[in-house]
Design brief:
The protein has 675 residues and is an alpha+beta fold. It has 3 domains: 182 residues, Poly(a)-polymerase, middle domain, CATH 1.10.1410; 187 residues, Beta Polymerase, domain 2; 298 residues, no CATH class. The protein has 24 helices and 14 strands. Helix 8 packs antiparallel against helix 9, helix 11 packs across helix 13 and helix 15 packs parallel to helix 20. The longest helix is centred in the middle third of the chain and has 31 residues. The radius of gyration is 30 Å and the shape is globular. Pfam families: Mab-21_C.
Length: 675
């Protein structure tokens, strides 16, 4: 094969290698993204009742902005135990045993129920979510574990769309701790691949069972597919730079050349990944060097071409499973074969036509000038990191919401549990939860007739610790504490510090972030932990247990309003406030108490500008706070208008109608005073 290689392959390969660096596939960026997803899974492990694991392109960092990869999440159910043989001892959990027969396709199993008293397999008994298979076994139905209809599903996963580009595929899975017997033949090394250490490690991770049956099986509703996702993730993490970029290039080629004519299912990213695994076994390690990148890509294309021609793509761990079943047939197979043949005939020239991430144009410019504008490089790298940062940030906020819903004793136990785990979780969540814990404790102290100063000092220390969680939410709660103590100097100092940090501040993690902030992350080489502390501003939320340590303007709203746009994890008696609005509200209150008239009017003007921003979140809370400030200023007509706007946005379960009642009573009182 190498004797027929065009002379320009090595030079183009090296330039292509550099172009891929510029679209976010540099080694340092790759490992930062992998580390962030790893941290996210650790956070979910501590905060959630179920075990959530991220797989696929985001966890492997094998995506770019142009590929727009989904976030793939497997949610494991810890209450269900899956075994491969009948246990010797009874267990208190619901237990199943993996079974198969002549009619069960390779790579799939059924889950037969075990009697809870005797651990004996159950036959000829009907239970909820169970059916009898052709052998009379009581097996768990896989189709009962999918919440969406077939038209809304993406394979076995439930797909949710967030914004225009981000989608999340969530699949319910069952964990098998032992290595599946159907993959017992895997692990024989060819060309020293995989390494002996990886073989041992992968076999220790076991497998997942996902609720999807074989597309051609008459009992597909009873079958579960064996997914060795942990092992695949480990193998991809072990890719060197050339192997890593070869895999991403295959995905780009699939997206640009294959999908438009053959559809998404004919050739998937999983087929490409499997092809790279087999290519690594069939070639010496010395081949996988930067100057051979294009050669390696075409080696994989030839392998795919051979598989399409015979209609058989063997699973890497279970070769008896044909991954083309139900996806590649008839005219689709003919079209795909024609596309692959055409690519191979072009001898690498198709790379110049790749539109994904402007790869073709970038490579053309580099081949002509060998220079690319460094600013463009920086922007593309920033964009490739955006989703990973956003996903990690969202996990932290959700953990904080769940934490806030617990009572005080549970909160203390929660923090102790966090402190005993990984350093990353300790630095990200412990401080994030400290604000809620300190506010809760301060509220209890302030509700007593005789204040326990020692406990109040502990609450203060917790609130100070929580200032390092993010830019705003912890500091804003500390400012409220100082206002409650009439410590106006310290309150003003905290608010001034927040105002200064708004230079690069990111107030909403689910939108496109300012490029200046993310470029600064790259310049300073910040970790995910440092990024969240310095540049992310979460919304401030209060729950009922904090009512004595929060502004009175929000207490009425907490008990009487029911916001429509509040996220699902938010408890019923709670209130959310946008950090920017809350900052200006507290500035107004601080300057009002200090008698600084120009400063308080400036804060009120700033608050007005933010509240009526068209993209503002939690507008209902913002309008309530603004109305209170206007009433304090004696601007009752303006307050009336603001409250009417709030009622138009939400005409039921809105605390604004009680504020309107107060406003009317105030008007009658003023009228009587004049007479």
């Amino acid at each position: 094969m190498e004797g027929n290689t065009p002379v320009y392959y090595n030079d183009v390969s090296l330039r292509l290698f550099n172009v891929l660096d510029n679209v976010g596939l540099r080694e340092d960026i790759r490992w930062k993204r992998i580390s962030m997803m790893f941290q996210r899974d650790e956070i979910e492990f501590v905060c959630s009742e179920h075990f959530h694991h991220t797989f696929g392109s985001q966890a492997e960092a094998t995506t770019t902005p142009g590929l727009q990869a989904d976030i793939d999440i497997a949610t494991c159910i810890p209450e269900i135990v899956v075994l491969q043989r009948i246990p010797w001892l009874q267990t208190s959990k619901v237990t199943y045993i993996m079974v198969s027969d002549e009619s069960t396709p390779p790579g799939y199993v059924k889950l037969q129920a075990l009697d809870s008293n005797s651990s004996i397999p159950v036959f000829n008994a009907q239970f909820e979510r169970h059916s009898l298979d052709s052998s009379g076994r009581s097996v768990l139905c896989s189709h009962n574990f999918c919440s969406l209809s077939e038209s809304e599903r993406h394979g076995p996963a439930d797909r949710r769309i967030y914004g225009k580009t981000l989608s999340m595929d969530t699949v319910v899975a069952l964990r098998v701790l032992s290595w599946p017997w159907q993959a017992s033949q895997w692990g024989y090394r060819i060309n020293n691949y995989p390494s002996q250490g990886n073989i041992v490690l992968i076999k220790q991770t076991g497998a997942l069972l996902v609720p999807v049956g074989h597309p051609l099986s008459p009992e597909s509703h009873l079958e579960w597919r064996i997914s060795i996702s942990y092992g695949e993730k480990i193998l991809v993490w072990q890719f060197n730079s050339t192997q890593y970029k070869c895999y991403v290039l295959l995905k780009m080629i699939k997206k640009h050349f294959v999908e438009p004519s053959c559809g998404e299912k004919a050739l998937t990213s999983y087929h490409c990944k499997t092809c790279v695994f087999y290519a690594l076994q069939s070639t010496p390690p010395s081949l996988w060097q930067p100057e051979n990148l294009l050669l390696c890509v075409e080696l994989c294309l030839r392998t795919l071409c051979k598989w399409v021609k015979i209609g058989y793509c063997p699973n890497y761990f279970i070769p008896q499973e044909n991954m083309f079943h139900g996806k590649l047939y008839g005219h689709i197979q003919v079209k795909l074969l024609a596309v692959l043949h055409d690519l191979l005939r072009q001898e690498g020239k198709y790379i110049l036509r790749l539109s994904c991430d402007d790869m073709g144009q970038r490579l053309t410019r580099l081949c002509q000038t060998s220079l690319i504008n460094s600013v463009i490089q920086e922007k593309v790298v920033v964009e490739s990191m955006r989703i990973s940062f956003a996903f990690l940030s969202g996990s932290i906020e959700e953990a904080g919401i769940k934490f806030a819903c617990q009572d005080l004793s549970n909160k203390i136990g929660f923090v102790k549990k966090i402190c005993s785990t990984h350093t990353t979780i300790q630095t990200l969540i412990e401080m994030f939860c400290s604000s809620s814990l300190g506010s809760d404790l301060a509220s209890q102290c302030l509700s007593q007739e005789v204040i326990d100063q020692d406990r109040l000092d502990i609450a203060h220390d917790l609130l100070v610790l929580g200032c390092s969680s993010d830019v705003t939410s912890g500091r804003l709660k500390l400012a409220v504490f100082y206002l409650m103590q009439d410590n106006l100097i310290m309150a003003e100092s905290v608010l001034h510090q927040i105002q200064e940090d708004y230079t690069y501040l990111v107030s909403e993690y689910n939108t496109y972030w300012p490029e200046e902030a993310l470029c600064k992350i790259l310049e300073d080489n910040l970790s995910a932990t440092e990024f969240v502390r310095k540049y992310v501003a979460y919304p401030v939320y209060y729950v009922q247990s904090e009512m004595h340590c929060m502004p009175k303007a929000l207490i009425l709203k907490m008990f009487l309003s029911r916001e429509i746009h509040v996220p699902d994890p938010c408890p019923s008696r709670s209130v959310y406030v946008h950090p920017h609005v809350f900052l200006h509200y507290l500035e107004y209150q601080c300057y009002f108490l200090q008698g600084k008239i120009p400063h308080k009017l400036a804060a009120l003007d700033n608050m007005l500008c933010v509240v009526f921003d068209k993209d503002l979140e939690y507008r209902d809370s913002a309008l309530s706070l603004l109305a209170c400030c206007l009433m304090q200023e004696g601007m009752y007509i303006n307050a009336w208008k603001v409250l009417c706007i709030s009622m138009r946005l939400q005409n039921e379960h809105n605390a604004a109608m009680w504020q309107i009642t107060f406003l009317i009573n105030r008007a009658f009182w003023l009228k009587r005073q004049r007479h």
